[in-house]
Amino acid sequence: MSDRTPPRLLDLAAISLLRDEALTISTLEYLPTELFPSLFMGAFYGRRMETLKALVQAWPFVCLPLGGLMQKPHRRTLQAVLDGLDVLLAQEVRPRRCRLRVLDLQNTGQNFWRMWSGAKARAGSSSSMAPVTENSSRTEQPLAPLKVFIELHLKKRTLGKFFTYLIRWVEQRKGSAHLCYRKLEIVSMPKENIKEVLSMVQLDCIQEVELNCTCKLSTLGVFAPLLGDMINVQRLRLSHVHASPFAEQEQQQHVVQFTSQILRLHHLRDLCMESPSFLEGRLDQMLRCLVTPLDNLAITNCLLTESDLTHLSQCPNVSQLKKLNLSGVTLTNFSPELLQVLLEKVATTLQELDLDLCRILDPHLEAILPALSRCSQLRSLSICGNFFSVAVMEKLLGHTTGLLSLREELYPVPLESYSSQGVLLLERLVPLQNELLEILRDLGRPRSIWISLRPCPYCGDDKCVHMEPAL
Ligand SMILES: *[C@@H]1O[C@H](CO)[C@@H](O)[C@H](O)[C@H]1NC(C)=O
Ligand SMILES: *[C@@H]1O[C@H](CO)[C@@H](O)[C@H](O)[C@H]1NC(C)=O
Ligand SMILES: *[C@@H]1O[C@H](CO)[C@@H](O)[C@H](O)[C@H]1NC(C)=O
Ligand SMILES: *[C@@H]1O[C@H](CO)[C@@H](O)[C@H](O)[C@H]1NC(C)=O
Fold it and tell me: Candidates 3.30.565.10, 3.40.50.2000, 3.90.550.10, 3.80.10.10; correct CATH number of 321-471?
């Protein structure tokens, strides 16, 4: 079969149908299901609002992934679709053809349109795209509430016009339409607004929460009860939640408020906390509340105590981690064995390890080498911004040479490249680099490593020395 296929009959049919809006609308009831996606796309791009409105009322699929077509919010289109939904919701009995239960405004529905627009149609028989997946006795039951899925970014002081319009629409149809957010992102929105917006949401729809507010712990306290109701959250990211240096008791209260809600998150797999200064000395409280094994844990750019790290290495629910990121957590003064215990624990599952800027030294690296060499799933290892001698780096290269999945290796320049004042001396770096290359060659497996002056993996070539032994 050639790649260049002539226009499909379906598309030609859709184009021709769209020429006569009134006729098309009157015949929707009799058109084959396969025509609906093409027709919808045609009406969408041609801004045929009346057709859109009518298509919604006869939509033969459970989901209308409108977000997959809209590059950016388009209010008139949304309005046409909502008008169509209004007609539907006003009816006691669903029209014969219509299966619509979910309006998906997330930017994730492209597959549906791609599949139905032909090119890759053979690829999938995914059930979400099958026309009929429901089997309820539709004609007898009243309509189940319609779900409107959106991705919500609470970034500004106010919501945009598009969302305000949508939220108001849903609000006025309480009981027959629900707003659902799979992903909730809150960036610097006033507390009151957060509460107001979230009060209109089915909290148990939310699977991903990102709270990035550069806020105080008390805001987290306000947010906590809501978090506990988001019982299906799988991914939680908190950035820049700060402890205030005073009011220790109050602080503790907020932490308890927050961690006690973590107890309710039975689907949490992925926990990222960037600069969580409130965690220092309290990590055990958080870990004790985990009820599921995590896949991904990131605690970055903060201070932890040795006791925090001890608790981490003993926590049963981190033993299946695929990704561990402790970048920017200073571990210099901690016993090297702690890191070793932690790594041993996750060795069979770990795929990504980031220990950038942990200021770890030779003894730490030496302590973890045996465990590291058993991380057979490891794909990415980044330990830039630490201080290792070339001798220990040689050991490191030896211990990682058997890790066949390892594709990304980011190391710091050896300690010997610096003067006693901590200035990088290129005339020292170059021979050391050659030495490392020689070691790699002797190890006999072709691989690339990056030697970085900075912790950043993809910093410009001026800062990264990309080593690739030709074997
Ligand atoms: C579908 O409907 C039929 C007949 O009403 C019933 O026997 C069957 O169990 C239903 N299947 C599902 C998956 O609900
Ligand atoms: C958090 O917000 C700050 C600005 O407010 C931004 O620079 C940073 O990239 C955001 N972080 C995340 C993880 O979204
Ligand atoms: C860890 O997860 C298990 C389920 O895998 C759970 O039973 C246990 O209570 C969790 N928490 C701790 C602190 O072990
Ligand atoms: C680890 O966390 C830091 C800081 O949040 C981030 O910049 C880095 O990309 C993360 N590393 C990985 C491997 O995701």
Answer: 3.80.10.10
